[in-house]
Amino acid sequence: MILDKFKLDEKVAIVTGSARGLGQAIAIGLAEAGADVALVDILDMSGTKKEIEKLGRKALDIKADLSKKECVETIVDRTVKEFGGIDILFNNAGIIRRAPLPEFTEKDWDDVMNINIRTLFFLSQAVGRVFIKQGRGGKIVNTASMLSFQGGIYVPSYTASKSAVMGLTRLLANELAPYNVNVNAIAPGYMATDNTKPLREDPARNKAILERIPAGRWGEPEDLKGIAVFLASAASDYMQGYTVAVDGGWLAR
After folding, report:
1. Which residues are catalytic?
2. Residue 243 · residue 148 · CB < 8 Å
3. Which CATH architecture describes the domain 2-193+220-248?
4. What is the pTM of this model?
């Protein structure tokens, strides 16, 4: 039956940035589909852990500073030790810095690039090695953005990093496909999260954004659960290197 292909029973997932917002919803969605989840964040993950355990699934919280590559080994080793292996990596963690171009600092550039693309690559590389060693395939899903497709304003490092996420998703898919590993990405539209709070609180920007979205509303984190489960499951076994927009129609406008 087709619905059986969406089940994640006995699967182990790692979800970065899972303390709140999109990552929290994705982690809970994967658990609702049957997965045990290693939660990764620098913030308190107890709320997410509690919700997953309510579902009868296991949750491991790994506190890590994703701006530093050194966290990668800890994340992989602790997940394998606790759960016996890895089946799904969800690179969701990301930050944003906003400033007009003449004022944008080197720190604002480096902070965003380190988390949004540098550690994403090295964590994907490490988990890819685990997938190859296990010999049973796997799934990597990256969180891209509308700014993987567009330029935006005031967010040069975020735009650069999210454009790189889409390109790297294709590269990883090409290299890992022979090992039965699927790599794809989700590009959320304008979602009601902490990252977009300044936009939602700006009456002019909020109005302009909503007028552009055919669905007529900001997205909610829960809107990503369906696509997250699909890309993490056997239902997407013939999808490779694609970035799926979940944007209320923003790009179609």
Report:
1. 158
2. yes
3. 3-Layer(aba) Sandwich (3.40)
4. 0.96
